[in-house]
Structure formats: C-alpha cells, structure tokens
Amino acid sequence: MAKIAVSRSHPRYLSLFYRDMLANGVKKGLTSLQGLTAHGRGEAFDYLIGEKTCQFALSAIKTASAMLILAKYPVLSINGNTSVLIPKEYIQLAKLLDAKLEINLFHKSSVREQKILNYFKHLGAKEVFLADTVQITTIKSNRRKISSKGQAKADVILIPLEDGDRTQALISLGKKVITIDLNPLSRTAQKATITIIDNIVRAIPILVETIRIFQHYPRKQLLEMVQKYDNSTVISQALAHIDSRLNLLISK
Amino acid sequence: MAKIAVSRSHPRYLSLFYRDMLANGVKKGLTSLQGLTAHGRGEAFDYLIGEKTCQFALSAIKTASAMLILAKYPVLSINGNTSVLIPKEYIQLAKLLDAKLEINLFHKSSVREQKILNYFKHLGAKEVFLADTVQITTIKSNRRKISSKGQAKADVILIPLEDGDRTQALISLGKKVITIDLNPLSRTAQKATITIIDNIVRAIPILVETIRIFQHYPRKQLLEMVQKYDNSTVISQALAHIDSRLNLLISK
Question: I want to staple A238 with a disulfide (CB 3.0 to 4.6 A). Which of A47, A195, A197, B174 is the partner?
C-alpha cells in the first residue's frame, strides 16, 4: 500500500487513515469509486455508534466465531473495500478456519478481480476463488456470479460490507450468512443470520482472537451458543445505542 | 454524464444511481474523491430519516422559497457534488429567481472550477461567477475566496452540502443562509438561517415548484411566512423524527 499522508497527531487520525487507504486502493485498482461512498456511509454510522466495538457487536462476534468453527464448508467473501482495509487479517482468518476465500464484486470488473487476486496471493493467500459458471439468478447485480468451489458449496458465508440482495438470496438457498455492517438499518443487517454491527477493521481482529480461543471449546458448547443467539435482539440493541447517543448529542 | 451501470429493478436503485453519478463526476473532474465520502455520510443520515422529504423539510423549503423570492440579490452556491447531482434543476432555479450562480469549492482546484463552469455553461447557464479578489478572512479553507459580483453582494445565499465554516462567516456578515443538509447535527445545519434537512436531489425540485407557486403570492404573505419561521423548531423536529423512527424499529 502507498504512504498515508495524514498526521498521527490529528484528532481523527484513524478515520482519515482508513479513508486514505481506500483512496490509495482506488489508485491501485482494488477499490471502486462507489466503494468510497459506501465507506463514507459506514463512517457516519460509526460516528453515531461511538467508534468502538460495543456489547451487541461482541455478542455477534462470539456467535459468528462458534458458527464458523462448526461450519462444514465456510467461505469468506472478499470485495474491494475488504481487500484494502484488512487483507492480512482476512487471510489469517481463512487459514485458522481452513475456509475458502472468494472474490465477489458488486461492480463487474475482471481487471479489478485479477488485481485483488494478485494482491491476496502476494500477501500469502494460498487459494482465492473467482466467479466461474455458477449464477444465483435471483441476484440482479454482478454478485450473482459465484464460484462452484466457493459460495455454491458453502454452508456458512462471511460477507462483510455487503448489499442486501446477496444476503437474501443466500439465505433463501439455505445457507447461513454472517455480515459485518455499521448500518443496523441496511437490508443486509436485517436479513443476515448474524449481524456484527461494527467497523470491519475492529471486528475482524477480534473475530480472529475469539476463534483462536473457541477452537479449544467442546462442540456442544459452541452449538448451544449458536442456538441461544437472537440476531433481532442484537439489532435492537444497536438501534437503542444509536438512539441514546443521539439524545446525548442533542442535549449537549 | 457517463452511463449508469446499476439496474432499475434493484431495490436500492436510486441510492446506487446517485452513487454512480458521483463516481462519474470524479472521472469527469467535477467531484473530488472527498466528495464521494461526504455523500456517503449523507446517505447514512438519509437512512435514519427514511429517505423521504418530511414535514420539517417541507416547512423549511416553503420558507426558503419565500425568502429567495423576497431577496434583493440572491446567490446560489455550487460545489462539486451539487454540480453533478442536480445541475439542471439548479440552473432552472437561478433563472426562475434571476439569481446569480457562483462556484465555491472546499478543495482548491482551478482545473475543477473551470470544468464545473464549462459544464454549467454547456447545460444552459448564462453566467457563472468564480472567486476573484474578495476574501472572507474568517474562513480557513479555500471557500474564503468569493466573487465580488456574487456572494460579496448577496443578501440571501443558498449553500447546499456545506461545511460549517462558511455558514457561520456569512451569517456574521449579516447575510441570510439557506442550506440543504441531511445531518441535523452538523455545524451548517445548526448555524444556518433556514436548514432544509433533506436529500438535495429531492429538495431542489420541490423548491423549484414551490417558488413557481409562491411567485404569485402577495409580498406581505411571503414576509409573514419568513417572520413566523423558527429554524430551531425544524431542527428539533428532524431529531425527534429520527428518534421516533429508531424507537419504532427497536420495538419491531
């Protein structure tokens, strides 16, 4: 990645740091311009959430960890923003779970697909799947094209920073979907099996650490964790948290 | 403008449509990369508002219409995102009011200024002012440079999608500021004379239509409308609306 221009002493250093990373991602052909807008939307929700990993996110991360360990064929989906923001941790996650990595882009671009693939290989990913002949016809966008060795075979799929179409389509196919989305009102957040309402750059490292610990837990305990989990409660808690933060900002 | 890639049948077509428009705006040199992130932030607040023009916005649009008709020297400010999102309606508004158009950018760029100017001329704008020798020294950014024939002479200025610095500086100079901002907590929203808390692509066409109707109203009636208006009530109503929407969603 190219150099980041913003000074470490800036009060909003981290936010500007990731913004610069994505702008560099555009220059390197990994991120789409639309990805920058999507990130901006996330930034606003992160601001409302308070830019920290809350209890509702930790609860979702724990259950996601259990579900990913229990999965028979877990697949981790990669898009432009994911590839720029947390590629190393994503590869770490795939190795830890023996999960498949698959590139799936909203905006069709074979060039960008190839660049993301090369970037992941360069960072140490052994295998990264691209879309082949399989299509999910209920998805309107380029995301309908999936890999026969990846999402098509998966029982659990991690799709962070997502649009709602694919989540709904995958759920309809009987698959379990884990998402990471800062917007609790998005279609993805509302439809997913597990919604981690947190910034991907905070959530993925915690997910990695939690999986490291949970891998030693008995299978029964992990199953119970998944069975007890209620995603709608987690979403309500996130909304209530934003509401109380807004009320705090209003009364200031 | 270049082609828009997203399918009309996509449930979030409109949101993706405007995202594509701005991405094309960057390719054409009209919008800055930072403008894409700023738009994303707006998208987040539009989600919270419910992506429709609410009563508090209509009330602000009505009063803004009256104020713009009554103005002696109204000026409509153009930035990168405005120039891409609603250029035709903006030119229509200027003709209807016999108002001046002035380009004012946060990020200094003579090239971009010139491109926006050419684009507006191409779309039928007769005259578009650029910054000349006048400066508002209390503004830190490039926005301090204004036109001696535009903002410097204006009594009422429309500055949509704005940062807070200029709003405050113009108000201090005794001018009236109308803004369009999806974030009711922003400095601009809090400081403006009239704050239209709505998406610019929804608000400007309604503003145009309202002005067409109000132009036939007696001056006294328009004056009363402006005198009765309380911007802090409108902001409180917007915040209360977001609050009730969140509470409704929590209880679902």
Answer: A197
Position B1 scores a pLDDT of 46
The reply to whether A138 touches chain B by the CB within 8 Å rule is no
- Picking from A23, A141, A250, the nearest residue to B10 by CB comes out as A141
Domain total of chain B: 1
Domain that holds residue A66: 55-242
CB contact under 8 Å between A40 and B41, yes or no, is yes
- The reply to whether A95 falls in a domain is yes
Distance between CA A185 and CA B156 in Å, rounded?
37
Rounded to whole angstroms, the Cα distance separating A157 from A152 reads: 10
Residue (of A184, A36, A43) closest to B48 by Cα position: A184
ipTM confidence score = 0.83
Q: By the CB < 8 Å criterion, does A165 face chain B?
A: yes
Cβ within 8 Å, pair A38-B37: no
Higher pLDDT among residues A134 and B9, named by residue: A134
CATH of the domain at A102: 3.40.50.12640
What is the reported pLDDT for A109? 86
pLDDT-derived band at A82 (thresholds 50, 70, 90) equals very high
Asked if the structure places residue B214 within a domain, the reply is: yes
Is there a domain that residue A50 lies in? Answer: no
Please return the burial class of B38, using the count of CB atoms within 10 Å of its CB with bins 0-12, 13-18 and 19+.
buried
pLDDT at B133: 85
B130 lies in a domain?
A: yes
Among residues A40, A212, A75, A241, which one has the least CA distance to residue B45?
Answer: A40
A10 part of contact set with chain B, CB < 8 Å: no
For the segment A151-183, what is each residue's pLDDT rounded down to a tens digit? 999 999 999 987 778 899 999 999 999 999 999
**What does pLDDT average to over chain A?**
92
Q: Which residues of B touch A36 (CB under 8 A)?
A: 33, 36-37, 40
pLDDT in tens, A86-124: 999 999 999 999 999 999 988 788 999 999 999 999 999
Chain B window 224-243: which residues touch A at a Cβ cutoff of 8 Å? Answer: 239, 242-243
Backbone angles phi, psi at B194, to 5 degrees: -130, 125
Q: Is the pLDDT of residue B47 over 60?
A: yes
Q: How confident is the model at residue A240 (pLDDT cuts 50, 70, 90)?
A: very high
